[in-house]
Amino acid sequence: MKLKKVFALTLAACMSASLIAGCSSGSSSSASGGAKVVKIGVFEPTTGENGGGGFQEVLGMRYANKTHPTVKIGGEEYKVELVEVDNKSDKTEAVNAAQKLVSEKVSVVLGSYGSGVSIAAGQIFADAKIPAIGASCTNPQVTQGNDFYFRVCFLDPFQGTVMANYANDNGAKAAAIITQLGDDYSSGLGSFFKTAFTGLGGTIVSEEQFQTNQTDFKAILTNIKAQNPDIIFAPSSITTAPLIIKQARELGITATIAAGDTWENSTIIENAGNSAEGVVLSTFFDEAEPANEEAASFISGFKAYLKDNKQDEIIPAVSALGYDAYLCALKAIETAGSAEGAAIRDALKDVSIDGVTGSISFDENGDAKKDMAFIKTIEGGKFKFLTTTTVK
């Protein structure tokens, strides 16, 4: 059923019911044929700088909706309808997208890829008493001081420390850091790497920043080359990554190039070509190591789903996280026995599931209790699992 039709029917039902009891702030409603509907918002970028990664996250959510299309509330079965908005990888557009989801009366929101847009929309969801479940937004500020925001991924302090540990364990003594000015994910992760790396006795020999939409990094990379680092840590978007990688290799830089979870995207390999060989990154999931039966089922089913949708059959970690965020939302709705946001928020605090990316429950901040990351490299034009690591 088309979204506009559902919304029109919901609005008509509310206007009619308001003569007697007023319209509920929840999103449960009766669709044509008597089916009951609960709406889940998908707050993701499908265009802009992070559009590629955001779309991968959306695919995981869509697949979860395909395999788990209903939810029981108080013993009655409701159809789950996804209401998707594009926050366009932009903080201002994120506010508009969030307000659209509020107006659509969704019960819970999933997303977003990109910490900056998640932070920008956080207060809007909190004011509307609609809980949000982030999939891969790793900056601590996403949930900080917002008891309506949760997430199923690990955080940047953990991820930055994990990558610093990896660098140290592999003999790196000097590191350079490249971050994007004004980007919460990039600057935050770079800062956490710096703190952890220097704490292990390493030296930061160069810190460089670049502007959004910048395409020429040769001046930055020339400065770095002069300092001869063992490793370059450059957390950035999948749009920027291949440019940095290719230009570094063209300048003859041989240092290991490393980043965080955003770089686990096949478009980086396609665009950087042979220059991507040896790149190292941290991520949340590895399809070669299913954590449980849910993960094993997801891997086989999602590969077929990707093929049907003419997508690369390599499973991105963010797709798995998007799937897990959806499962957490369903569990919270069932536990609450309600489509009301505040009740779902309260239920989320005690939710525990065995998801595709492992067991998921939330701490007092709404952050997932996770203590392990996967380290991968690019070898032979493919992502290759290296090791798992935890914080020392």
From TrEMBL:
Leucine-binding protein domain sequence ranges: 38-381
Domain of life: Bacteria
Pfam families: Peripla_BP_6 (PF13458)
Keywords, in A-Z order: Receptor, Signal
The keyword Transport is assigned to this record: no
Family matches, as InterPro entries: BCAA_transport, Leu-bd, Peripla_BP_I
Keyword Signal in record: yes
Signal peptide: 1-21
PROSITE patterns referenced in this protein's UniProt entry, alphabetically: PROKAR_LIPOPROTEIN
Family, as annotated: Belongs to the leucine-binding protein family.
PANTHER family registered for this protein in UniProt: LEUCINE-SPECIFIC-BINDING PROTEIN, PERIPLASMIC BINDING PROTEIN OF ABC TRANSPORTER FOR NATURAL AMINO ACIDS
Official protein name in the record: Extracellular ligand-binding receptor
Organism encoding this protein: Lacrimispora saccharolytica (strain ATCC 35040 / DSM 2544 / NRCC 2533 / WM1)
Highest classification ranks of the organism: Bacteria, Bacillati, Bacillota, Clostridia, Lachnospirales
